[in-house]
Design brief:
Number of strands: 15
Structural class: alpha+beta
Radius of gyration: 22 Å
Helix content: 25-40%
Number of helices: 11
Largest sheet: 6 strands, mixed
Order of helices and strands: EEEHEHEHHEEEHEHEHHHEEEHEEH
Strand content: 15-25%
Shape: globular
Distance between the termini: 21 Å
Length: about 400
C-alpha cells in the first residue's frame, strides 16, 4: 500500500490555459485500460525537458531530444504505457517518428512539433498499429479538465495516480501550475523509470525554460530513489503556455524567474515524493538529510549511499534498529578524508550516534519506535562544512521482489 498517499481529488486539479488532454484505451499491452494520452499545447508555448542519463536511452527519448533541439515549438505530447520502445534499435526509432507523424496529421502541426513518450516493458516492439488506431479516441476527448484521467493513463506498476496543482503569485500576478507523474520501480537519480509533466500558464522566454526545468528536476525527480536503477525512458517536461496575465520573463536577471522556479519546483517535488510513497512494495517513506558536508555533491553522494544500501533499506522494512548499517554506508560513500569522530546520526528526534560512536543515552527501543513509523527522517552531520543535501527513498520489502518477478505476467 502507498505510504500516506491517496488518489488526487479531480476537483483539486486546476486546468492550465493552453493545455488540453485526451486519453484512450488503445490496447497497447492489455485491453480495457487507459494507456494512450495526447496533450495538445497552444501555439507559442515554451517547452523544455530533462531526460534519462542512461546511455541505452529509449527511442522516444532520442526523438524528443532531437525535436527540442530543432526548436520549432512544441504543439503536442503523446504518451503510451505498456511498452517502453526501448532496446528496439532502428525499428523503434522509426515507430517513435511514425507516432509523431500520425499525431501531427490529426492536430495539423509538424511532426517535429510532437514529443513522444513511452513507458513499460523494454526490448519489445511498439504495437504501432494499435497506438495509431487509438489516437482518434484520445483526440476527441481533448479538454482542459482531464488531468485526473491523464494521471491514470500514464500508470504502469503504480497503485495510484499522481497529480497535483498549485496556484501562486509571481510578480503580482496569479499563476497556475498543474502536473502529473508516474513511477514506482526502477527509480534512481539522473531521472528514473518515471514520467513527469508540469504545465503552467506563466510566460517565459523559451531560451530560459531549460535551465528552470533542470533546476526543478535537480531538487525533485533527481532526489528520489527506490531501487538504484536508472531506466531508459525517464522524462520530465515543463510547459509554460503564457496564457496568464503575467508579463513574460525575458531575462535570467528578472527576479520573477526565481519565483516561477520555486512554483514549478513545489509541484515537481510533490510529484516526485508521490513516486517514492508509491514505490514498489514500499511500507515507509524515508527522508535522508546529510548536513555538514564540504560540498553539496559530497552530501548528495553520502545520502544516496545510505538510500541505496539494501542492508539499510531492509532494516527499515523490518523496523530493526541495526543502525550501524547507516554508519557503514556513510563510510562507504568514498570520502577518503572523512573523520569518523565528527559524524553525528539522528533518527527523527533520537540522537543515535555521537562523534562517530553510539550516543551514551541512546536506547535501542527508541530507535525501534521511530523505525516502526510510516515516515522516518535520517539526519547525518559530517562535521566537514556547511553544505547539505536531501534525498527521498523507501524501504525494501518482500513485495518489491514479487512485483518485479511477476511484472511481465
Amino acid at each position: 500500500m502507498p505510504v500516506n498517499l491517496s488518489a488526487p481529488d479531480p476537483s483539486s486539479l486546476q486546468p492550465v490555459a493552453g493545455v488540453e488532454l485526451g486519453w484512450a484505451e488503445a490496447g497497447i499491452r492489455k485491453a480495457n485500460r487507459k494507456d494512450l494520452l495526447v496533450v495538445r499545447i497552444a501555439e507559442g508555448a515554451a517547452v523544455a525537458g530533462v531526460f534519462t542519463q542512461n546511455r541505452f536511452c529509449a527511442a522516444p527519448v532520442q526523438v524528443c531530444r532531437a525535436h527540442l533541439n530543432i526548436g520549432r515549438g512544441v504543439r503536442a505530447l503523446v504518451i503510451n504505457t505498456g511498452n517502453a520502445n526501448a532496446g528496439t534499435g532502428d525499428p523503434g526509432l522509426a515507430h517513435a517518428r511514425a507516432t509523431c507523424d500520425a499525431v501531427a496529421k490529426h492536430l495539423d502541426c509538424e511532426p517535429v512539433q510532437v514529443l513522444p513518450f513511452s513507458t513499460g516493458v523494454i526490448m519489445e516492439a511498439l504495437p504501432l498499429d494499435r497506438l495509431i488506431a487509438g489516437l482518434p479516441q484520445a483526440i476527441v476527448r481533448l479538454a482542459p479538465d482531464q488531468w485526473a484521467q491523464a494521471a491514470e493513463t500514464i500508470m504502469t506498476t503504480d497503485t495510484l495516480p499522481k497529480a497535483c496543482s498549485r496556484q501562486g503569485r509571481v510578480g503580482g500576478h496569479t499563476i497556475t501550475g498543474t502536473g502529473i507523474s508516474k513511477g514506482a520501480g526502477m527509480i534512481r537519480p539522473n531521472m528514473a523509470t518515471m514520467l513527469g509533466f508540469v504545465a503552467t500558464d506563466a510566460a517565459i522566454d523559451p531560451a530560459l525554460l531549460p535551465r528552470l526545468a533542470r533546476q526543478a528536476a535537480d531538487v525533485s525527480f533527481n532526489r528520489i530513489t527506490i531501487d538504484g536503477d536508472t531506466s531508459t525512458n525517464d522524462s520530465f517536461v515543463v510547459i509554460a503556455t503564457g496564457k496568464s496575465s503575467m508579463p513574460r520573463i525575458d531575462s535570467f536577471s528578472d527576479p520573477r524567474l526565481a519565483q516561477l522556479t520555486d512554483a514549478i519546483t513545489a509541484v515537481a517535488q510533490k510529484l516526485a515524493q508521490a513516486i517514492v510513497r508509491d514505490g514498489e512494495g514500499a511500507t515507509k517513506f524515508i527522508e535522508i538529510v546529510v548536513e555538514g558536508a564540504a560540498r553539496e555533491t559530497e552530501a548528495t553522494q553520502v545520502a544516496y549511499q545510505i538510500a541505496h544500501s539494501p542492508l539499510v533499506k531492509t532494516a527499515f522494512f523490518a523496523s530493526d534498529p541495526n543502525l550501524g548499517r547507516i554508519l557503514v554506508a556513510v563510510g562507504n560513500a568514498g570520502i577518503v578524508d572523512l573523520d569518523q569522530s565528527r559524524v553525528q546520526l539522528h533518527l527523527n528526534e533520537v540522537w543515535v550516534a555521537k562523534d562517530g560512536g553510539r550516543h551514551p543515552d541512546y536506547r535501542e527501543e527508541d530507535g525501534q519506535r521511530v523505525m516502526k513509523g510510516a515516515e522516518i527522517a535520517v539526519r547525518v552531520h559530517l562535521g566537514r562544512g556547511d553544505a547539505s543535501a536531501v534525498v527521498w527513498t523507501c524501504d525494501l520489502s518482500h513485495d518489491y521482489v514479487s512485483i518485479n518477478a511477476d511484472y511481465r505476467s
